[in-house]
Amino acid sequence: MRQVPDGQRASGKASSVPPVVVDGVSKIYRVRGRGSGRFTAVDNVSFTIPPGSAIGLVGASGSGKSTLAKMITGSERPTSGSIRFGELAVESLHANGLRKYHSRAQMIFQDPYAALNPLHTVAYTVTRPLQNFLNMSAARARDRVHELLETVGLTPPGQYAAKLPHQLSGGQRQRVVVARALACDPELLVADEPVSMLDVSLRAGVLRLLADLRANRGLSLLYITHDLLGARVITDEILVLHKGKVVEQGPTKYVLQNPKHEYTIQLLDAVATPFATDGNGSTR
Question: Considering the entire predicted model, what is its pTM?
Answer without folding.
Answer: 0.85
